[in-house]
């Protein structure tokens, strides 16, 4: 029976095609460019323009397929090379160029949710499905040497950091880390969803912690402004010095759960839900959005969009 379900799933994934529907568009307020994300139905990275036209795609070779692709397949556009860095959960991180050639890879099972190329060429990535004995983040150089690893379990303080006992994840995850950012000062911001907080790490030591944001996702610092996604209610929010100055909390469940919070060059934010991708203005207005009919609400057990990335070229 399991084999039959697996065959049906493969056939469905082979024939299903993403169909974008533009739902909102205020042309004068949109950041120009394209967007890309991992299409888990067809095991490919797809790129579209803001009118919903397919502009590029990369079909994953069968040798790179992973049954965990829905468990945090991040994609980041690399402006210096016009290529894409992407994560296959529990498999590795890869770079593919516009000619659809894999030009770099680092394979490991301790990876999911987020990976970034640093200015020095190194790559830093998360292990969102970490256990207490596994690294929460790792940094490797171009040659595949491990530069540093950080273990949340060895650095969290039981008197300060309280794990959310209500969070249930499959497979098991200790922190469910979902975003990592190397800050301008060289420190590292890590989002720890199961602890409802982010921490800033310097030389392996937590020097700052911000908590009490239920189910925190994708926190990012822009100057003195903190922007993030969270749940209960599902929303994207920005705060400056603790004062809220942006909030977007739609009731449509296809926006749930929100994940991507990417600042764009014109001040907008790129955001994603289960089946929707959009741009918020600095005031929190939805100035552009696109819905993909093949994806649905994650908690209904349907395929969903994980994160998206903006492409300026």
Structure description:
- This protein is mostly beta strands and 313 residues long.
- Helices cover 4% and strands 42% of the residues.
- The chain is built from 1 helix and 25 strands.
- The chain has one helix at 2-15, and strands at residues 20-25, 34-39, 44-49, 54-59, 75-78, 83-88, 92-96, 102-107, 115-117, 123-126, 137-140, 146-150, 177-182, 188-192, 197-202, 205-210, 217-222, 225-230, 235-240, 243-248, 261-263, 269-272, 276-280, 286-292, 308-311.
- The strands form 6 sheets. The chain has a 5-stranded antiparallel β-sheet, with no helix packed on it. The chain has a 4-stranded antiparallel β-sheet with strand order 4-3-2-25, with no helix packed on it.
- It is globular.
- The termini are far apart.
- 38% of the residues are buried.
- Residues 1-15 have low confidence and may be disordered.
Helix-strand topology string: HEEEEEEEEEEEEEEEEEEEEEEEEE
Poorly predicted parts:
1-15
Number of helices: 1
- CA-based gyration radius: 19 Å
Amount of helix? under 10%
Helix/strand-derived class? mainly beta
Main beta-sheet strand count, sense and barrel state: 5 strands, antiparallel
Main-sheet strand order equals 1-24-23-22-21
- How would you sum up the global shape? globular
Mean pLDDT: 91
**How far apart are the termini?**
47 Å
């Amino acid at each position: 029976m399991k084999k039959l379900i697996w065959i049906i799933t493969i056939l469905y994934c082979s024939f299903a095609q993403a169909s974008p529907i533009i739902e909102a568009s205020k042309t004068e307020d949109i950041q120009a460019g394209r967007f890309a994300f991992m299409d888990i139905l067809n095991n490919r990275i797809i790129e579209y323009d803001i009118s919903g036209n397919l502009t590029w795609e990369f079909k994953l070779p069968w040798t790179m397929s992973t049954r965990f692709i829905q468990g945090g397949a991040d994609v980041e556009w690399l402006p210096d090379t016009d290529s894409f860095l992407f994560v296959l959960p529990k498999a590795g991180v890869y770079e593919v160029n516009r000619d659809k050639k894999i030009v770099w890879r680092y394979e490991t099972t301790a990876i999911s949710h987020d990976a970034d190329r640093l200015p020095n060429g190194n790559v830093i990535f998360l292990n969102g499905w970490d256990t207490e004995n596994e690294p929460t983040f790792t940094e490797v150089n171009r040659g595949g040497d491990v530069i540093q690893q950080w273990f949340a379990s060895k650095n969290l303080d039981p008197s300060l950091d309280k794990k959310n006992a209500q969070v249930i994840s499959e497979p098991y995850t200790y922190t469910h880390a979902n975003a990592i950012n190397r800050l301008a000062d060289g420190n590292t911001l890590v989002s720890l969803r199961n602890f409802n907080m982010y921490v800033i790490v310097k030389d392996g030591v937590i020097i700052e912690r911000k908590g009490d944001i239920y189910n925190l996702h994708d926190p990012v610092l822009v100057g003195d402004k903190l922007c993030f996604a969270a749940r209960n209610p599902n929303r994207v929010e920005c705060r400056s010095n603790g004062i809220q100055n942006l909030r977007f909390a739609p009731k449509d469940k296809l926006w749930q759960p929100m994940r991507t919070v990417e600042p764009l060059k014109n001040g907008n934010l790129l955001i994603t839900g289960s089946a929707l991708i959009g741009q918020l203005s600095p005031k929190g207005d939805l100035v552009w959005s696109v819905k993909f009919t093949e994806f649905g609400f994650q908690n209904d057990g349907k395929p969903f969009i994980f994160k998206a990335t903006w492409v300026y070229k």
